[in-house]
Amino acid sequence: MNNYKIKKPISYYNQAYNSIKEMIFNGIFKPGDRIYESKLAEQFQVSRSPIREAIRSLEKDGLLCIDDKSRTTVYKPTIKDIEDIYECRRALESMAARLTTIRASGDELKKIENVLLEVKENIEHFDDNVTKAIILLNSQFHNLILHFSQNDRLQKQSNDLKLLTYFYRSIDVYENKRNRDIFEHHLKIFHFIKQRDAEKAARVMDEHIASDLKHLKNILKMNMD
């Protein structure tokens, strides 16, 4: 818990926001856990005002929920939520893959390739310490494709889903076989982007996200049993 202490020279709100977010992603706060302003204020050694502001922002991001009795809890995913979000991702990111295939420069393609090379190195030297690095790199792979699509509206709609998507990645099971499966999917997507085959890049991206959805639903169903 000491890793999440607030450092006073920086904005209290930003520190509170980032600390609570990381505590959720790292499993310190688990889905359904109650969040108390007073306890966080005491832990971070700040007033309740920046905590309250951070909680409101995290509610807008979808990571926290506030009920009609003003009780704050960590977002608890449901099968319906995951299906809704991943349906949006399939549409948006398939289009992004298609546009990036058409529009990305050679230098931009090299940036995507470098991310894949980093993932490969982490997989080859896999242990529990590199799991977070792999999640971040997998997110970067998708984010670069979205960015290089050069479609600001598409990126904005995807950004609305970004934190919950990362949250879902953080609750996935990352044994090395799973890492290798994701890596192979990403390699296949990149292959068609590099070959400038927009239709195949879009199709494989859609298949990849559909596969992720199936995997996450299985995890959630096992946790419900």
UniProtKB/TrEMBL annotation:
This is GntR family transcriptional regulator. Gene3D superfamilies: GntR ligand-binding domain-like (1.20.120.530), Winged helix-like DNA-binding domain superfamily/Winged helix DNA-binding domain (1.10.10.10). SUPFAM superfamilies: GntR ligand-binding domain-like, Winged helix' DNA-binding domain. Residues 10-77 form the HTH gntR-type domain. PANTHER family: REGULATORY PROTEIN GNTR HTH, TRANSCRIPTIONAL REGULATOR, GNTR FAMILY. InterPro entries: GntR_C, TF_FadR/GntR_C, Tscrpt_reg_HTH_GntR, WH-like_DNA-bd_sf, WH_DNA-bd_sf. It comes from the Bacteria.
